[in-house]
Structure formats: C-alpha cells, structure tokens
Amino acid sequence: MDAVVFQLYPVLLLAVGIVYVLFSRNPILGAGLLIWLIVFTTLQLILIRTIHPYRLKAAGEDSKMTGVLSDSLSNQATVTLFSGVPYERQRFAGAVERLKTAQYRAWKYDDNIWAVQGFLIVFVNAALLFIALALWKRGLLTVGDFILIQAYLLTLFERLVQAGREMRHVFNAVAEATEMAEVLRIPHEVRDAPGALPLVVGKGEIRFRDVTFNYQEGNVALQKFNLHITGGERVAFVGPSGAGKTTVTKLLLRFYDVNDGNIEIDGYDIANVTLESLREAIAFVPQDPVLFHRSLLENIRYGRRDATENEVIEAAKKAHCHEFITTLPKGYGTFVGERGVKLSGGERQRIAIARAILKNAPILVLDEATSSLDSESEALIQDALETLMKGKTVIVIAHRLSTVMKMDRIIVLEDGRITADGRHEELITQDGRYRTLWNIQAGGFLTDN
Predict the structure, then answer these.
(1) To pair with 249 at 20 to 30 A between CA atoms, which of 5, 82, 238, 442?
(2) Pick the CATH number of 206-441 from 3.30.379.10, 3.40.50.300, 3.40.50.920, 3.90.950.10
(3) Where along the chain do its domains lie?
C-alpha cells in the first residue's frame, strides 16, 4: 500500500503540473490532456474492478489446491495403506487444472487492461501532436513546444503505467487476502462478558444447573443436565461414544457457551469470569495431546511458563517421561517435530501429563489420559496421577473401566443424560450399562447376581 501512495502522489502532482503548463501554452492542449486523464483514470478503475472477481476466483482455487495437497500429505500413511497414490495424484491434478483455468482467465483480462491502456496512450499522443501541428502551422507554437510536449507526455505515460501496475498488485493482494480477512471478521463466539472478574478457586466445587447444549441445530448433546461435584471429589464419566462425556469437559473449560442453564465453580457462574482465569484454574490432559515444534523442556514448561528447569525435570519424573527423555541425544533440548510427530502416542501423553503436573491447578480434567499407554507405562502413570489428584477436584473420562475403579464416584452417561451414579462396588451389582461394560472388559469373570 505504501508503494501505491508513493506512486500516486508524484503522478498526481506531475499530471497537474503538465496540464497547467499545456494550458499556459494553449488552452486546447491543456483541456485535451485533462479530459484524457479523466477518461483514462475512470476506465482503469472500471477495468480493475471488473477483473477483481476473476482474481478472487483464482485465489480461491489456489487455496483449494493447497488444501488438497496438504490433506494428501498429512494423511500419507492412509494413502499408502489404501493404495491411494494414483487417486490422490488425480485429485491434485484436477485442482491444479482448475487453478490454471482460473489464473489464465484473470491473466487474459489483465492483458485486456494493458491493451486498453496502450491504445489510450497512443491515441492521446497522436491527438495532441496533431493539435500541436495545427497550432504550429498557425504560428501559435514553436518547435521547442513540440519537444516540451513530447517530453512531458512520455514522462507522464511512464508514471501512469507504473501507477497502474501498482494498483493491480494491490488488487491482487486484496484478492489473495480476502479469505483470511473473512475469517478475521468472524466474531469470537466465546468471549469475556462485560465486567468479567477473575475466578479465584477455593474448594473447587463444580455444579451444572439445567444445562442444555447442542453442537448443531436439532442435535442435542446435553438436555437439562444437572450435576454436583464437591470440592476435592474425584469423579469419572463412563459410557458409550457420543454420550456427552467430552462435551461436559468442553463446556466446563468454556470452549463453547451453553444454550441454556449455567455452570458454576465455587458458586461463580463461569460465563461471568474471565476465560484466562477459568482455564488457569483447570489442568487438562486430552486424549490426543498435540505438542509444539519446540524442545521437550519448553513443551513441559508450557504448563507453568515461569517454572525452573529443576521443576520441569521433577514433573517429568513424576510423569515417568524423564526416563525416555534422558536417552535422547539432546535430552530435554530435543525438538519433537510438528505436533510432536517424532514421539510415540504414549510419549506424547506422558509429556502432556507432566505439563499438567507442573501446572498444579486446583481442578484436573483427564480425557482418556492413559489411552495410548501400554500396561506397564499405565501402571506407572496411575501412581503419578494418584499423587497429582490429591487435594484436587478431578474429572476423568475413560473407556477402560479398570482405570476408574478407585474414583469417589462413577457417572454413567447415555444420550446426554446421567443413567447411573455411584461407586464401582455399587454399580457392578446393579443391572445397567456399567455392569454390561464391566462384564465385557473383565472377560465375563463376574457372576450374575
């Protein structure tokens, strides 16, 4: 944009000066150039605006082509396993062909602009020289005036062409940035309420009051959901996939706002506290943790960015990831790759657990935190989690019931509703989903009562 400003201002001043000089030599020459400048500028603006939709189309096809390529590369393992290389190559070739067609159409219209621009320049040059020749025959102009007019026109034409080129560059940049600008214009769905206050967690008591929520219209995830978790209580959510277990944690972290009802922590409605303080009070270990392409030390320290190196190492030891970190050539300085691809699933989960241990928040949420661990590693992590859970309000989501047997309460969710609530010893004696799941996972060793 700065380049356009630097091009337009000198051109404007030059054009005004030349028109003034020509007017002083002869009003006909000045008026003719002024009219031509108005026509030239108007046509340029009209043509540039006309071609803009074609630039938008080309930019859109370029984004789609990049998306097709990124999708294929990020799913390289699946493509290989299903012999999909020819198919993906065909998809990418189709995307490239569509981009080529759209880009060619934009270039063709751009060429038309250059053609119109060239015609107008030749026309005004010839017309003004013809007028000047007629005036010279009448003795109103001299040979020096001819040289002056031609020199002025050539300088003006050069500057106009440069300014037009910069204008087209700007419109090209606008076309390429339009998609991103549209994304940036989308308002945040979840934001701090006016006058929101920081959340100060004392006991860590959590209460869901008549919470209703749906991801899409007509697809209700939770309906009039009520739940009370006392401070320091360890609660597990179990149930089939899609029952609403992860939804409960996402609403607690306020990744989404509820459609109806409210969620409270220590009596404070989380919709009226700052998002930063809310999430600072909760340590979350996801099922599939994603790491930064940074060192292991930085990834663990992200739980508490002012932690010392010794505190990071202590957290890593409690999460039983210190052992494999020290075997790496660069130890804690090892970079883990984009999204942590250089580590196994179990190693990533242990890093995520170490991060949560370091954060030491009063509320702990574990979403299948040991799902990627082998039995030996899981046993070690369970010991670390027992230490981590002390004095905290804990919510655990699990499919393997063996990992939640020692919880204070086990809540069974089905279709967004609580169908059972109690301790492990109580639930296995009752007919219902929990007993069925336990019998399946335990190999049927329980006897029917």
Answers:
(1) 442
(2) 3.40.50.300
(3) 2-185, 206-441
Angle at 387 between CA 381 and CA 393, to 5 degrees: 105
Task: Kindly tell me the sign of the dihedral angle through the C-alpha atoms of 107, 113, 117, 123.
Answer: positive
Q: How far apart are CA 369 and CA 285, in angstroms?
A: 6
Task: Provide DSSP, 330-374.
Answer: TGGG-B--TBTTTS-HHHHHHHHHHHHHHH--SEEEEESTTTTS-
* 159/170 Cα distance (integer angstroms): 17
Provide the phi-psi class of 331: left if phi over 0, else alpha when psi is between -120 and 50, else beta. left
Find all residues with CB under 8 Å of 442, minimum gap 6, and list them: 401
Size of the chain in residues: 449
